[in-house]
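The instructor's notes for this session suggest beginning with a concrete chain rather than abstract definitions. Hand out the sequence below and ask the class to guess, before any prediction is shown, which regions might be ordered.
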Amino acid sequence: MNALEGLNRNLFLQLNAGAQTDAGMIGTATVIADALIYLIPLALFVAWLWQPERRPLAVRACLVCFIALGIGQLLALFWPHPRPFMIGLGHTWIPHAADASFPSDHGIVFASMACTLLLTGELAWGTLMAIMGIAVAWARIFLGVHFPLDMLGALMVALFAYGLLLPLWARWGSVFMQAIVKIYRTLLAWPIAKGWIRA
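After discussion, reveal the predicted structure:
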């Protein structure tokens, strides 16, 4: 075991909930770990339907997320790092498949959204997303399904994905947006005409 892996495991054991942890704390962490992520599609849904000026940002964030998740899958395929419970380390408080832990998919989603928002000047929303992401990262380590470096890796992957998309978006972003907005307006012409959603 190298020094980095040793540090990773030691940090995990310091953050992981022990056998005597209060049930209320476990319950709160479980909600944070599993439920907060559903706020992201809800926010994107609201932004697309009722905030047309935010549509490019929402689409850009989604693309960064998809690219980052794809990179994450490749990393997991070629470097399948085990989860803590797969090596008998610490305590596990929520069920999880015994698949590769690095990088965290939950971490990638929050990091992709937060990085896109922050790096495009949406500081308030970006900061809120970052805080939520940190909370989710803590909760998933606390509950024993991820190592700390899984979360740091997620952030690095998200930043890399943002950098990959940057020149592509600069060149093709407006064309892409025009195409998908046209499709949206065609498919949902009736509710748009009724004023239920924005054109």
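Then share the key points. The radius of gyration is 19 Å. The mean pLDDT is 96.
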